[in-house]
Amino acid sequence: MWKVQALVVHILLMGSVLSTYFQPTILPNLEPQKTMRDLGFKPPADRLVVFLTDGLRAATFLARNGSDVPDLRDIFRKQGRIGISRTCAPTKTRPGHIAIFGGFYEDPTAALVNFRYNPSNFDTVFNRSRNTIGWAHRNVVKIFIRLPHGGAPMRFKSYMEAELPEKLTCDKWTFEKVQKFFKKGANVREFRNLKSVVFFVYLGDMDIAAHRFKPLSKRFHKKLQYTQRGIQTTYELFERVFNDSRTAYLMTSDHGTTNEGSHGGGSTHEVETPLFMWGAGVTREVVDSEA
Ligand SMILES: [Zn+2]
C-alpha cells in the first residue's frame, strides 16, 4: 500500500513542478505603443535589414578578433557595434526566431512540441513594420506566416533544401534572390517610397555545416567564409539601392552550437550568439585607427 501512496505523492510533486514552470509566457491584453513617427519624431532609420545566420555561435564570430569573418570585420572597423546576445534553452530555430522577432521566450511546452505550427498568436516586429519582405527556409517562414497581420501580410520567398540543385547552397539561394529582387525597377521604386521596412535575410548554411562538419573543422570555416562575404556583398547592394544613409543592419543568430555540432541545450556555446549592428542610428565614439 505504501508504494501506491509514494507513487501518488511523486506524481503530485511532479505535476506541481510542471504546472508552475510550463506556463504561457505571453502577457494578455497588451496595448501597442506609439512609434516615434506617431509622436512626431523622425526615427533614426527608415529600414532594417536583418541577416540571421542560423546556428552561428558568438565564439566562432568573435574568434581571433574577428579574423574568421574578415569582411564583416572590415565593416566593423569603420562603423557599428558588436556584442553577444543570449538566447535560452531549448536552443532551437523556432524559439530563437520568436525571441528575436516576437520579443519573448516561448513557454517550454510550445517550444518543445510545436515546431511546425503556432500554438498561440503573438505579435512580431514583422507585423508592426507593416512592410516586411523575407527570404528564408520554408520551416522558418511557417513560424510567422499564419499569424494575424491586420491587413499587411508578410511577404516571404521560401525554399526547402531538397529543391536546391546542390547541397549546402541555402545561403547562395538567399543572396541570389535578394539580388534578383532589386534588379526589378518596380521593386526598387516601391521600397524606396516605403518607411518602416524590415528585410529578413535568413542564412541557413551555418547550422547545416555545423551539424555535418562541426564548427572547428576546415570545411565549416570555408563555408563561413562564403556566408560572411555574402553578407558584406548584400550590405553593399542595399547601400547602392537605397543610397540615403537611412538603412540599419543587424546580424545575429537564433542559437549557437556545441563543438560537436549539436544544439538544444543551455551550454555557453549554444546560448551565446553574435550581435552586430551597424548603419543608420548606430553610433560609436571611437573608430578603429586602421580603418
Ligand atoms: Zn540545427
TrEMBL record:
EC number: 2.-.-.-
Broad enzyme group: transferase
Nucleotide-binding is among the record's keywords: no
Record's bilayer topology term: Multi-pass membrane protein
Pathway entry: Glycolipid biosynthesis; glycosylphosphatidylinositol-anchor biosynthesis
Domain of life: Eukaryota
Signal peptide extent: 1-19
Record keywords: Endoplasmic reticulum, GPI-anchor biosynthesis, Signal, Transferase
Record's subcellular location: Endoplasmic reticulum membrane
Pfam family, one: Phosphodiest
Main location as per UniProt: endoplasmic reticulum
Family membership: Belongs to the PIGG/PIGN/PIGO family. PIGN subfamily.
Role played: Ethanolamine phosphate transferase involved in glycosylphosphatidylinositol-anchor biosynthesis. Transfers ethanolamine phosphate to the first alpha-1,4-linked mannose of the glycosylphosphatidylinositol precursor of GPI-anchor.
Name the UniProt record assigns to this protein: GPI ethanolamine phosphate transferase 1
Source species: Drosophila rhopaloa (Fruit fly)
